[in-house]
Amino acid sequence: MHVVVNAAQSVDGKLATRRREQLRISGAEDFDRVDRVRAAADAVLVGVGTVLADDPHLTLDEEDRRVERLRNGRPGNPARVVADSTGRTPTDARILDDAATTYLLVSPATPVERREALEEAGAEILVVGADESGGDESEDHESGDDGHVDLASGINALAARGVGRLMVEGGGEVIASCFAAGLVDELHVYVGSLVIGGRDAPTLADGEGFTESFPRLDLVGTERLDDGIVLSYEVAGD
Ligand SMILES: NC(=O)C1=CN([C@@H]2O[C@H](COP(=O)(O)OP(=O)(O)OC[C@H]3O[C@@H](n4cnc5c(N)ncnc54)[C@H](OP(=O)(O)O)[C@@H]3O)[C@@H](O)[C@H]2O)C=CC1
Ligand SMILES: Nc1nc(O)c(N)c(N[C@@H]2O[C@H](COP(=O)(O)O)[C@@H](O)[C@H]2O)n1
């Protein structure tokens, strides 16, 4: 599985305001780039925090890209995936429409009735088990997962359904967990020319944070778009 993380942040590293409302950080040129990255992916993943805050659709904007995918024998839109341990995705969320397959990665803690309601609303439920690495106050654990669904298991379940390239669009909690689990291959960050501020505003990588062993990145590209810059990285090997 090849995992590509993409996000837009302010100069001070924030993905949104402290109110966690969707904010346009980039512009038309960057949204077109994001659409290209989506078009290359088999699936696009977000955390349930992003679904609750933004109600995103996560489909392609450009019809030509959908047509090209169909011509290549792929679904018109990439599948949509939500990391959602207890099934908090609203049944009227936009990602549950029929524009693409939508997988919800839930833990066994999600009640059967909730799973059934979400299936009825259009979701494919994948029960993938909770992450066991968090929750012990005595350890300096760096995963920050604390009983959320185990993303590595989720990715294996997606691979078994034909997903070879996964785009992760956020938010900060899920991106942090992806780095903590060593799942990320590429990172693309659009840095918009604004300061958002706020100690409680989401950042590119929230979670518990790292204290000893930090994911290291190789800068492989820079591109000026709109009034900002896209920084492209590959995750450095050990
Ligand atoms: N500028 C940008 O590019 C983007 C900005 N955003 C912004 O980010 C904010 C949302 O980010 P954030 O609040 O961090 O939410 P996330 O989208 O990262 O979702 C976090 C939630 O995902 C669930 N989850 C399931 N499994 C995991 C796991 N293994 N690790 C971590 N979380 C997991 C948890 O809920 P549970 O335990 O219930 O499963 C958790 O609370 C919004 O304000 C949105 O606008 C979002 C995307 C892109
Ligand atoms: N790349 C990017 N640039 C911005 O300026 C943004 N505000 C975001 N936000 C994320 O984009 C997703 C919206 O998806 P749809 O347009 O509904 O398909 C959502 O995840 C936002 O948080 N991204």
TrEMBL record:
Gene3D superfamilies: Dihydrofolate Reductase, subunit A. Pathway: Cofactor biosynthesis; riboflavin biosynthesis. Keywords: NADP, Oxidoreductase, Riboflavin biosynthesis. One of its GO terms (biological process) is riboflavin biosynthetic process. It catalyses: 2,5-diamino-6-(1-D-ribitylamino)pyrimidin-4(3H)-one 5'-phosphate + NADP(+) = 2,5-diamino-6-(1-D-ribosylamino)pyrimidin-4(3H)-one 5'-phosphate + NADPH + H(+); 2,5-diamino-6-(1-D-ribitylamino)pyrimidin-4(3H)-one 5'-phosphate + NAD(+) = 2,5-diamino-6-(1-D-ribosylamino)pyrimidin-4(3H)-one 5'-phosphate + NADH + H(+). It is an enzyme of class 1 (oxidoreductase). Residues 2-231 form the Bacterial bifunctional deaminase-reductase C-terminal domain. Its EC number is 1.1.1.302. Residues 70-89 are annotated as: Disordered. It comes from the Archaea. GO terms for molecular function: 5-amino-6-(5-phosphoribosylamino)uracil reductase activity. Belongs to the HTP reductase family. PANTHER family: 2,5-DIAMINO-6-RIBOSYLAMINO-4(3H)-PYRIMIDINONE 5'-PHOSPHATE REDUCTASE, DIHYDROFOLATE REDUCTASE FAMILY PROTEIN (AFU_ORTHOLOGUE AFUA_8G06820). This is 2,5-diamino-6-(ribosylamino)-4(3H)-pyrimidinone 5'-phosphate reductase. It comes from Halorubrum kocurii JCM 14978.
